User: Which sequence fits this backbone?
């Protein structure tokens, strides 16, 4: 059995174990025997709170993990990630506008649509700003520009918020969390995320060919325009739908490919499925940890991922700097 097969099997087993643990763990421990006893007083906690939260953690983790792997493969840039390059921030800005005007709270699909438009615009601007044959520096700077624009827009919305409740709603939502999510949220985001994952999966051969450069990929018959469009749509659907229901949960797409690449190989197309499985494992594990932290208030998942991803991002930059001499 190869290392790749073992890794995939290990990730699948981890998903099963963490999924079961996520259904049980929290301020109130819910044994799995409650599944067989719907009249148990703990059944509403299991079915109405823990089940949708666990399914959302797995779905959104898979979406962010695969989109990060796809962006790193397309850009041939190890720092590419929907969060680090401003895609999630632009999606959040789109969703914040709906909260500001009150449309997002009344019609959740409006927030999802606005988030996806923001993510789609971000991917398009990122590719346009960085240009063909873009370097690592060009992509990072383009991402900084997008992050700055999105942050400025969000800050403007906060400063002009019509009332303190709207401002508090925007701030709380921006921190990112899976708390109190329902099956309705899963029904809203799930189909869009699955569609995005399907689009990204079709890019495997093109991403492998792009390791030879754009000229080499063209010589192998890769349609770069079609590849770029599918990437933009796939990332917009996965990242936009994720941001719409949970807020900003960053660094998943940055961390997971780096952890898995030594185990499954550096072939970009071969990293898509492991990236999805790894993202599901990371987000589910992090969500279990945040709900078990002591204290009356729960740490927001987006905050926890930022605390984990920030040092990882710094270590990655220092490692690259050492390699470049």
Assistant:
């Amino acid at each position: 059995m190869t290392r790749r097969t073992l890794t995939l099997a290990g990730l699948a087993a981890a998903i099963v174990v963490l999924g079961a643990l996520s259904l049980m763990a929290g301020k109130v421990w819910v044994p799995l025997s409650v599944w067989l006893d719907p009249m148990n007083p703990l059944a509403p906690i299991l079915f109405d709170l823990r089940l949708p939260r666990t399914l959302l953690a797995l779905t959104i983790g898979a979406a962010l993990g695969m989109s990060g792997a796809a962006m790193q493969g397309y850009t041939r840039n190890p720092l590419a990630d929907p969060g680090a390059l401003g895609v999630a921030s632009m999606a959040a800005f789109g969703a914040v506008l709906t909260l500001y005007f009150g449309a997002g709270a009344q019609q959740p699909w409006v927030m999802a649509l606005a988030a996806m438009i923001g993510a789609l615009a971000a991917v398009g601007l990122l590719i346009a700003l960085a240009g063909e044959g873009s370097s690592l520096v060009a992509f990072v700077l383009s991402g900084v520009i997008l992050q700055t624009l999105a942050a400025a827009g969000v800050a403007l919305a906060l400063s002009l918020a019509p009332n303190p409740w709207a401002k508090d709603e925007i701030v709380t939502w921006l921190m990112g969390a899976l708390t109190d999510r329902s099956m309705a949220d899963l029904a809203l985001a799930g189909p869009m995320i699955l569609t995005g994952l399907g689009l990204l999966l079709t890019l495997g051969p093109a991403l492998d060919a792009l390791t030879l450069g754009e000229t080499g990929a063209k010589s192998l018959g890769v349609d770069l325009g079609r590849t770029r469009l599918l990437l933009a749509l796939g990332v917009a659907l996965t990242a936009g739908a994720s941001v719409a229901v949970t807020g900003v949960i960053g660094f998943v797409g940055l961390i997971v490919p780096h952890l898995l690449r030594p185990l499954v190989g550096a072939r970009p197309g071969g990293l898509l499925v492991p990236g999805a499985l790894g993202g599901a494992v990371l987000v589910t594990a992090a969500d279990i940890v945040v709900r078990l932290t002591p204290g009356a208030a729960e740490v927001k998942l987006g905050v926890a991922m930022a605390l984990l991803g920030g040092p990882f991002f710094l270590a990655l930059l220092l490692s690259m700097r050492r390699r470049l001499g």
